[in-house]
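Deviation from plan, reported transparently: manganese (II) ion complex.
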Amino acid sequence: MKKKNLINFIETRTGFFSLLVILFTIKYIFAAYHDFNLGISDPYQHIIMWLSPIATAILLFSIGFYFTKPIISYCVMIILDIANTGLLFANILYYRQFSDFITVKTITNASKVAPGLGKSAVALLQPTDLLLWLDLLIIIFLLISKKIIIEEKAYGLLTPFTITTFGIFILILNIFLAESSRPRLLRTTFDRSYIVKYLGIDTYTIYDGIKNEQTEQVNRNANTADLNKIMTFTRQNKSPANQKYFGVAKGKNVIIIHLESFQQFLIDLKVNGKEVTPFLNSIYHNQHSLSFANFYHQVGIGRTSDAETMLETGTYGISDGSLFTALGSTNTFQAAPQILRQKGNYTSAVFHGNVGTFWNRDDVYKNLGYNYFFDQNYFSHDKNDHIGYGLKDKLMFAESIKYLERMQQPFYSKFITVTNHTPFDMDSEDLDPDFKTAQTSDKSINNYFETAHYLDQAVHEFFNYLQKSGLIKNSLIVIYGDHYGLTNSENETLAPIVGESSDTWNVYNNVQMQRVPFMIYSPSLKGKIKQQVAGEIDVLPTLLHLLGISNRPYLQFGNDLLSSKYQPWVVFRNGTIVSQKYIIVGNKGIHGLVYDRKTGKQIINFTHQEEVEIKYLARQGKKSLKYSDLLNNHNLLRFYTPSGLKPVNPSDFDYLTNFQQMEDLLNSLKRKSTALISQYHKSTTALYKTNAPELKKRQEEIKKVPDSVLENQLTNKKNQTNVKKSSNNSE
Ligand code: MN
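Because the crystal trials were delayed, the predicted structure below was used instead.
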């Protein structure tokens, strides 16, 4: 009896429609678990994910309902189902190859990518893919063989309208739940997989399409007159290199250590009588370190990715999101890896224990010109080895060596740490029993010291290896903190620990907390702790000059910190300005809060001179941000190629076969190889010593390239996916 009811229901048009929606939802949920790695953790996220395909399936298939002629109505529903399944299927295949989702840009550029994809598409198929099409095959068969009868009843507008409204309701509910689980999801898309996880493939594709159209609209309105204005501004402000420092590190390897959420106040700080970061303190005070006591982060909503934007390109992050995710896939850059490859024959790589799609890095790094990107795929997949935002730092450094030693020298490399990231969680086995953290009322603060202490040890172990392997002699190490770890709301509780009082803590103190470490170390460098105000925007020009490469041809907003003409002031992304004399809060100039930077006293009555100086700084700060935004939002660098700098061709790079590419290069260069492993005639991984309990048990992990990496390279080789080898020696 029940079965009969069901068949009767399916033979109504609403019933048939419901069947399609339900079957599509089931297929989608299956694919989400079976084919995608969405990182769904708590039950709430599972529910949101199950909900995500329903709204768009209802909205899409309901279009069929608006056709009055029954046969056409059924056909349209089926065709839309096929199209939607096709989109899902295409994403599954794409994901198998790139661990990422298809962007609208990829679809419109399909002709460029297709030759590389086409051949391997068949090889990417799996038996389970059949399940994706099975329901449609059966339904079409049942319709043709008249096992399902098409309902001939005429529907007015009311039913389809009700269904559409219901679909919209579900969509709004979905977006609401997603926003409550992941605030600012759509505003700061740090990762495509996050949008898919919460809103489904369809909504993601529509959203991406809208964003893509907006970008293109802006680009169509771009003009070169703007570019000239910007270039005049940056040229006027450029300070000449200091001959004492220019080229002192010429030809050296560059190793950038990105200290996640690490603030300057940690340096030299003692908690319960013990230094929190003894090793970094020793580097800070080292006679071969150029250290900066008043170096400010300048990140906005794009946080880590903003810091990277400034260091790699010498331009600011954008005002309303992350440049990496909003523009990183499409913009033209004059970035460090590309400049160094062409001016100094550098090979470049990033090492990072999080997934490659985070902040859109897997796309952006290609546009910046990075040869290699070692993301989570290249490291241990053991669950115990991960916490928070990815692989634990000690393990990331240790497991990087087998890749680092294979890189041709000189290299430009960046290690992005993750353990010291809010909420600063650590496994108890990784805690140092000799370090007792603070006991404040705020758990974040207490945890922060522990993860910072852990990070310090991780960097120490890495340095020991650099020393033992001799790599350090030929390297310039850049250490910096990307942004704050503790927020303004936590600062008041922190105050007594940093020698201040919670009662008098104010805006000035919060601004001063935005200082992060910046140190440049090399055994041959004459060091000093510099007090001048500096910021992240200044790192690239400073670095280029140390390496003996003039920054004059490039469009950069910062300046060489070692130049005698360096003007010591920085502007934050929110408009706050810090100069040697002043802290000018927000972007209101003399009409807002202004403090004396050294004494912390608020300046209320301005002398004429102060007024002139503050107005000048406010104007410069505003212009600097405005021009950087204009440059990036309109992608103006595509109109300006400095002589000698060939634009990046992102398709030169393939981050899925890094290891194979390095091996091939070693084999073809033979004796000419400058990689460390060639100089040693054997691997140097045995020189790496770590006290990480995860590795102590199985020291072999350091040396082993994960099976999944080797498999990946093997299948890619077998399929000959037409991916060009990255050009290490182009100029
Ligand atoms: Mn960060």
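Residues 260-261, 303-304, 482-483 surround manganese (II) ion (CB under 6 Å). We consider this an acceptable substitute for the interim report.
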